[in-house]
Amino acid sequence: MSEYHQRSNQTDEEIVRRVQQGDSEQFGVLIERYTPKLLRYGRRFLSRTDDITDLVQDTFIRAYSSIQSFNTSMRFSPWIYRIAHNAFVNELRAQGKGSLFSLDLDTLVSPLDLKASEDVEGEKAAMRSAIDRGLSKISPKYQEVLILYYFEELSYADIADILHIPVSTVGIRLLRAKKALRPHIDPQVLPS
Amino acid sequence: MDHLPTNHIKESVLEKIARKKVVMQPRRLFVFQWISITIVALIILVLGVLTLSFATYSIHESGELFLLGFGIRGVYTFFALFPWALIAGTFASIIIFLWLLRGSTLAYRIPILYLFGAFTLGCFLMGLMINSTPFHQLISELAEKNQHTFIQTWYERINLSDEAYGEFRGMVVSVDTDSFVVSYNDGDTDEDDTTHTVVPLEGVTIADVAVGDEVYIAGDIKNGVIHAYGFGILRPHTQ
């Protein structure tokens, strides 16, 4: 099996294990896999492209520095997204675009039994189109859940791990995000 | 579309790694951090448990729990004397504990108020368990023996009378038909270390009082006579 084939078959966690054991070159595979995703995530979150490239690079640098803290029995994707999220949030604060850290009642109390209502693929595609039009007009707190769910196609559990909020709060924020979007887009496009 | 930035970022990061401008922090550092934070968090939680334990112990030992059975005035006095600072200290300990462990999955997956409620209940139950042991008596004795004034003061205050709030503690020295006499304990040795007559107000019976009983009295003192709207036996006389 060629080395390329081997690398593409390995899971993220297997690659991290090899990096932790000293094979730093393998970290390049993770960079290849996640750079497009993190750039896409950052572009929807921030306005200046130059900043995004630098921030994504910083994200990988931080990830490499703290790679030994990663537990390979967990999933790598939420972990790297969490590092990127922190970098983007700090940049937003530096740009003076408000804090995402105001006390959020959703994280204090939310129904523990709120089940994630997964959108079907058709609905997701319609939502992506709708969201693109109104994303910049809503609060960053709602932008991030929409981006992570509809564009990065992460699960509620992954989003909860990235944002460090309860899973039920992810559902509540998505509902509120869609509500916040309504005034800015064609209501026929937005599924109820 | 993202090939250029991807390659640029990859080359830049790998170059920094190769030139040791970016290094992998050792695992033992993270293990040490995790252990340190956990130990500090647990110490703070234990302090919270002990604080709450002492608060419930003092309410029980002081006799202030009797106040809840003495009508509206008793209830009002109970809440005026309630150890709010100790309770606030316990809550602060739990909040600090949860904040220190905020990075753990448990701490963020469950809504904060539910976690806070669960830990408060846990601290309360653990405090009650501690109170069922001679822990506080031992601490009090140790403090007195080793002259730890700060801790000694906290335990001594439990059994002091507080005239301003109309609460008195003492030992019954004699019992009459419609009154009894108690020795007065206010924690010092001066001219008011004497005995006081306790006259119960209407509706308060003294049938169960015996000489040697340690009692808690709620009432007002006028001319050396305590007019009691309620009292309870803290420790009955020993035969």
Query: N-to-C terminal Cα separation of chain B, in Å?
Result: 94 Å
Can you give the mean pLDDT of chain B? 89
Provide the low-confidence segments of chain B as ranges.
none
Main interface pair? A-B, 36 and 31 residues
Q: What distance lies between the first and last C-alpha atoms of chain A, to the nearest angstrom?
A: 49 Å
> What's the overall average pLDDT of chain A, rounded?
82
Q: Pick out the low-confidence regions of chain A.
A: none
What is the assembly state of the chains in this entry? heterodimer
Query: Mind summarizing the main beta sheet of chain B?
Result: 5 strands, mixed, barrel
Query: Strand content of the residues of chain A, in percent?
Result: under 5%
Approximate shape of chain A:
globular
Number of DSSP strands of chain B? 5
Number of helices of chain B: 8
Global Rg of chain B: 28 Å
Largest sheet: spatial strand order of chain B: 1-2-3-5-4
SS-based structural class of chain B?
Answer: alpha+beta
- Classify the helix fraction of chain A into a percent range: 55-70%
Order of helices and strands of chain B: HHHHHHHHEEEEE
Helix content of chain B: 40-55%
Q: Would you kindly provide a written description of the structure presented here, covering whatever features stand out?
A:
- The complex is a heterodimer of chains A (192) and B (239).
- Chain A is mainly alpha-helical and 192 residues long.
- Helices cover 65% and strands 0% of the residues of chain A.
- In chain A, helix 5 crosses helix 9.
- Chain B is α+β, with helices and mostly antiparallel strands.
- Chain B has eight helices and five strands.
- Chain B has helices at 3-18, 27-62, 71-81, 84-100, 105-109, 112-131, 135-145, 149-157, and strands at residues 167-175, 180-183, 195-200, 214-222, 225-235.
- Chain B has a five-stranded mixed beta barrel.
- In chain B, a hairpin with a 2-residue loop joins strand 4 and strand 5 (225-235).
- The longest helix of chain B has 36 residues, at 27-62.
- Chain B is elongated.
- Chain B starts with a helix and ends with a strand.
- The model of chain B has no long low-confidence stretch (mean pLDDT 89).
- Classes of the chains: A mainly alpha (192), B alpha+beta (239).
